[in-house]
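User: Can you predict the 3D structure for this chain?
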Amino acid sequence: MRYLAVDTAPKLSKIGLGTWQFGSRQWGYGTLYAEREAQAIVHRALELGVTLFDTAEIYGLGRSERILGRAISGHRDQVFLATKILPVAPLPPVVEQRAVASANRAGVSRIDLYQVHQPNPVAPDTVTMRGMRALQRIGLVGEVGVSNYSLDRWKAAERALGSRVLSNQVQYSLVVRGPADDLIPYAEQTGHVVIAYSPLAQGFLSGRYGPDSPPKDRVRSVNPYFLPVNLERAAGLFGVLRDVAEAHGVTPAQVALAWAIRSPAVVAIPGASSVAQLESNVAAAEIDLADTEFRELSDAAARFQPVTGPAALPGLVRARLRRG
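Assistant: Here is the predicted structure, written as C-alpha cells:
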C-alpha cells in the first residue's frame, strides 16, 4: 500500500474504503452482506494496509457507522476514521451533538476526520466551523474536512475554522474530471488532500456493464451513465482502459483507480461488494501509469460525451419501468 506524505496518524492510504453501501438498502446487498461480508471486507482491508475508512451519519441512517464501528473494534490504532455531518441547521451545538452521536454509533472516542457533507446554501461556514473548533478543542475531532465544496468555499471554510481544513471529498474519476482544474492543483501546492468518491463512477468504469447487461440495483438505475446509449458512447474509453489494463496485466477498474490517484494529493475511497473486489481495488495503488498512458486515458475520457440532464430523463424512466 502507498500512503500520502501529509501529516496524519495513521498515514492516509492511497486507496481507502467507502462504506455508503454498509447498511444502505438501496444498494441491494441485503442483511447477510451487512452482518458478515462487510466485516470481512474491513478486516481484509486492514490486513492489506488500508487506513482510511469513510462513512457518514446519513448512510443507512447511521447503520453504516455502526457496522464499520463493529468491524474496526480492536483495530482502532490502524484506522483513520472519517465520517460526515449533513449540515441541516448546522448551529454549533447541533454540530457538537451530531458528532457525539456519530462517535457513539461507531464506538469510538475520537473521529479522525469530521467532514461537512454538503455546503449549506444558507448557513455560512463561519457558523458551522464554530462547532468544529469546539469539537477539536475537546479532542473529539482530530481533523476537519469538507465535501462537495468549490475551491473558494473550501478556502473560506479554512479561514472560518482558523486552522487547516485538511480535505475536500469530491466526485472524481475519468468521467468527472473537474477537480483536476483547481482543487487538485491547490491540494498539491498547499499540503491539503482531495478524497475522490465514486472513482469508478459507481462501477461504470469497471467494464462489467454494457447495453445488454445494465445494473439492477436502485442506485445505479438512476445514474444516467448506465443508460444503453451512454454505455455505447463509452466504447472508445472502455477500449483504451482495456488496452492499458492488458499492458499492465490488470483490470480496467484497477487502471481507472490508478488514474484517479496519480496525483500525490489524491486518495480514493471506492466501495467494495466483496473481499475479492476490495483486494482488486487495493492492488490498484501499486500500478504506475506512464505519462503517455495517463494522457491517452484522459484524452479518451474527454471524447466521451454522455447524455445527461433533462435529455437523459426519458431513458431513465424507461429503465425504471423495466425494473418494475
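Residues 30-47 form the longest helix (18 residues). The chain has a mean pLDDT of 93.
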